[in-house]
Amino acid sequence: MDSVTQVLLGASIGVAVMGRRTALWKSALWGGVAGLLPDLDVLLDHGDPILNMIRHRAETHALLLLTLFAFPMAWVVSRIHRQPQLYGRWWWALMLALVTHPLLDLMTIYGTQVFQPFTDEAYGLGSMFIIDPLYSLPLLVGVVAALRVQSVPRALAINGWALAFSTAYLAWSALGQAWVTQHARQSLQTQGLPSQQLLVTPAPLNTVLWRVVALDGDRFHEGFYSFFDGGRAIRFDAHERGGALAAQHAEHSQLQRLARFTDGFFKIERDKDHLLVTDLRMGQEPDYVFAFDIGMPLQAGQDHPIAAQKSRRMDVGQGLTWLGQRILGRDVPPPGRAGS
Questions:
Q1: pTM of whole model > 0.85?
Q2: Which of 51, 147, 328, 331 meets the CB 3.0–4.6 Å disulfide criterion with 46?
Q3: What is the DSSP-derived secondary structure letter of residue 115?
Q4: Cα distances (Å, whole numbers) of residue 103 to 35, 58, 164
Q5: Domain limits of the chain?
């Protein structure tokens, strides 16, 4: 999730765990700091944009390492505020603020390496978009109440209800994803399309409209389903994926990295004499967050060049207009498609 939401989640947890044992602003402050810390890995430059993408959400998002880091952090915080008797409670508050960061990231499709240092496998449920106001705004209300409401019991109650609502919303997103996945498989089978390799993830800013991608050899099929569609079958558009080109350059190290990190949800195409690889998980055709020029096809034994990011972003105004219409169940083509 976005860093602002992670700060709000950490602050809310800090307030909920510390309760009346310390000033609410202190627990909100340090909970927010703990919620932000794992994302500071974005400041590290690994010398290549593909490595920067893959190495984000790695060791700093490991559940074990964050749990261990909570021990010295709690010691420092309890000494700063001259509350050594609250060391144990501070540890619980900061540990939960730290580990819920990668657990929340697991709900997105990006990929989070929560089991570092034992494995670099990246996991992601994909039931939440990286920014979702219905998740973040209740947390904001709870934190503001903790900082502004003079009655401590009332402030704690508001924060607790806000945290409970946001947690319930995560559960709703997982249930919604499961329902859309089943509906997508039925739609694909009815149309004679494969449904084994399937990606179902929400469209931006909501959990009402969902994007579905199904891999089919040299092609992939993309469709959208809104809960206001009334149960109608999903209409899929087919797009070239470049399976033959990927097989031809299967030894390219940059392509191998992306293929593993995306679980195969990528497309590859030629851009003049260069190879362009796109992560199909984040974005929608033809606009994606992560697309990379991985250089020219190379001969055996040659070093692969540093990749260059070539992302495409859709027009925000057009995108929001389409999003609003499509959420309401209107079967309008996405921006950038023929007839849109």
A1: yes
A2: 51
A3: T
A4: 11, 13, 16
A5: 3-124, 181-327
